[in-house]
Specification:
Belongs to the LacAB/RpiB family. By secondary structure, the chain is an alpha/beta fold. It contains six helices and five strands. Helix 2 crosses helix 3.
Length: 171
């Protein structure tokens, strides 16, 4: 079974619950990390939750994450401060698909104030249904991943607990 992390702020709580159900029942994912059990658990916590989700992915407890708030922007900005993490806020299926296929993004941020649930499900489908494929990916996508790793190595500290190649190269 595929594994995924999910989190939200207080604004995205109800949508997170619906998306969690969609991931488990329709997409056959097991949610391995979901720290926000009631809306107040997510209030003013996006930075802390982004840090923890990055760690969960770095430790290879799962390789993908979804965060739901008003826009998905602040959380993904914070997540990108971590070695090996590629996160982006997405608002449409095409951008979600390209985030995965071109950049091997691990975390997407979704905006409860931006899109309704059925459209968010379409965005998730686009993100989840076509994973990055090193054998068939564009050469410039692979080259850009290697450049991103060089940037991370130069600008960020790689934690000792990183348990996989973070999708920079084929395993």
């Amino acid at each position: 079974m595929k594994k995924i992390a999910i989190a939200c702020d207080d604004i995205g709580f109800e949508r997170k619950e619906a998306i969690k159900k969609y991931l488990e029942e329709e997409k056959n994912y097991r949610v391995v990390w979901d720290p926000v059990k009631k809306p107040e658990d997510g209030k003013n916590t996006f930075a802390k939750l982004a840090d923890k989700m990055a760690e969960v992915i770095q430790k290879d407890e799962c390789r993908l994450g979804v965060y739901i708030c008003g826009t998905g922007i602040g959380f993904t900005m914070q997540a990108n401060k971590h070695w090996g993490i590629r996160a982006t806020a997405v608002t449409n299926p095409y951008s979600a698909k390209r985030a995965r296929l071109s950049n091997n993004v691990q975390i997407i941020g979704l905006g409860a104030r931006v899109n309704g649930l059925p459209y968010m499900e379409m965005v998730l489908d686009a993100f989840l249904d076509e994973p990055f494929d090193f054998k068939n990916s564009r050469p410039n996508s692979r080259a850009n991943l290697l450049e991103a790793k060089k940037d991370d190595d130069r600008n960020l500290k790689k934690p000792d607990y990183v348990a996989w190649n973070m999708g920079f190269t084929e395993e």
